[in-house]
Structures are given as structure tokens and as C-alpha cells.
Amino acid sequence: PGTLYVVATPIGNLADITRRAVETLEKVDWVAAEDTRHSKPLLHALGINQTLISLHEHNELQRSEQLLAKLKNGENGALISDAGTPLINDPGYHLVKLLRDEGVNVVPLPGPSAVITALSAAGLPTDRFTYEGFLPAKANKRLAILEGLATEVRTLVFYESPHRLMECLQSMQTAFGEEREIVVARELTKKFEQFVSGKLHDVYGYFIENSDKVRGEFVLMLKGAPEKSEEAGEAALIEQDKMIQVML
Ligand code: SAM
């Protein structure tokens, strides 16, 4: 059988395409893309003329079987999404799972992903983090998920669309308190790239005052809750201070 290459593409800046991605997209027999109309200009800009096959949420199961047959026939293919790394909040999971189950070779070509790009420059702990993707659109469901994460000590990463940014920041204040540290990364790798950081209520206030900045693409990163040992340590220090005061 042939090989499926899972190829990351830029998240805004075309120069972030890797050499290996270009070579691979040129040499494969076809490219499965989330939105062929979206990917055509990308391939065109890279000077690549390829057969595009659509693979999106609504046809992934059926399409995966067809692509499996092609690969079993000895063809090589590539999978790309509209931006960044396929399968990271993008289609491809069913295809990759099917190919793995069927013993077909799947080769990842690393490249941009908004989550890693955002974390790499946010200034929040990155030794452990949890990627939560998009929160539900409904306020009660969103709040329930956030409340479930309120004591999570790892850095939390979310994707959010501009028209839900403000509601999302509000729900976060309810679930985590206004003082929790947040870093909002906007328009990564693009002309208007911006990082806004501070306490939740300050960052919320910033976007209230600068509503022109509530546009583009966003990654939201929250500092995790203090570790239990940290909290216990702080409580012990407060107790110690009290004792010292009493003794004085
Ligand atoms: N597969 C992509 C990846 O690897 O990051 C994610 C695709 S997901 C459908 C799109 C979301 O990713 C956007 O709504 C935004 O939250 C985030 N995103 C993508 N590109 C971004 C960028 N240039 N700046 C900030 N966030 C971005």
C-alpha cells in the first residue's frame, strides 16, 4: 500500500510552510483537503498543481473508505486542513484511525499549529498544559465545562472565535475568578499579531475598550490553579506569621 502524509500548513504566514511539506504535496498522487476552494489558492501560491479531494466533517466516514482503497492500490496521498495541523480541531481523525487499523502507513509532517505557536510566546508555564479546543456555544454548557476545570493546575488552552470572545471571557471570570491570569493571542503569524495578558478582568476590560481588536483568530491561555502544595505552603506561612505576631 501507499502512504498517507499528514501535512501541516501555515496558520497565516505562507512562509511558514516547510520544505518537506512542499516536496510532499508535489510528489503525492492526490491531496485530501478540508475545503478544496480554500486549499486551491494555497497550492497555487506554492506553485503546486494537484488533484484535490474534499474530506470534511460531513463526508469523512465515507471518504475515508475511498481513500483507503486508493492507498491500498499503491497510491500515495496527503491530508491538509484549512490551516495548521490536521486533526487539531480539524478533520482527519476517522481517516487516520481507519488507516492505522488497516495497517496503512501514516506519516506526520510537522508544522504550524495555533496551540503550540501561542504557548511558545505566552510566558505561561508550558511544562504541562491541557488543550481544550473550542468551548460549547451555549452559555450553561460552557460554564459547566469551565467550572470542571477551575482546580486544574495545568495551563489551559482554548480556541475561540471573535464573536464569542467576550461571552467566553465573562464565563471564565465566573468560573475562575476575576484575578486569574490570562494570555490572549490574536492573529498569530499575521500582520496584526497581538498578545494581551493580565488578570481576567483587566483583559476583559481591554477588549471592552478596544472593540476593534475583537476580530481575527484567537487562542486563550489561562494560568492553572495554584498547586495544592503551594496553597498549603501559603496557608502555613500565614499561620506562622500569626504565631510570630502573637509571640511579639
Ligand atoms: N488546525 C488548526 C491548528 O493546528 O491550530 C486549528 C483549526 S481551528 C478550526 C481554527 C481555530 O484555531 C481558530 O478559531 C483559532 O482559535 C485558532 N487559530 C488558527 N489560526 C490562528 C492564528 N493565526 N492566530 C490565532 N489563533 C488561530
Automatic annotation (TrEMBL):
**Which UniProt keyword terms apply here?**
Cytoplasm, Methyltransferase, rRNA processing, S-adenosyl-L-methionine, Transferase
Q: Which reaction does it catalyse?
A: cytidine(1402) in 16S rRNA + S-adenosyl-L-methionine = 2'-O-methylcytidine(1402) in 16S rRNA + S-adenosyl-L-homocysteine + H(+)
- The main place the protein resides is cytoplasm
Q: Which Gene Ontology molecular-function terms are recorded?
A: methyltransferase activity
What family does this chain come from, according to its entry?
Answer: Belongs to the methyltransferase superfamily. RsmI family.
Its domain of life reads Bacteria
EC main class here is transferase
State the compartments where it is located.
Cytoplasm
What name does UniProt use for this protein?
Ribosomal RNA small subunit methyltransferase I
- Which gene codes for it? yraL
Q: Name one GO biological process term.
A: methylation
Q: Any idea of its EC number?
A: 2.1.1.198
Native organism taxonomy: Bacteria, Pseudomonadati, Pseudomonadota, Gammaproteobacteria, Thiotrichales
Q: Which organism is it from?
A: Thiomicrorhabdus immobilis
Which residues of the whole protein are included?
10 to 257 of 292
Its biological function?
Catalyzes the 2'-O-methylation of the ribose of cytidine 1402 (C1402) in 16S rRNA.
**Record-annotated Tetrapyrrole methylase domain positions:** 3-202
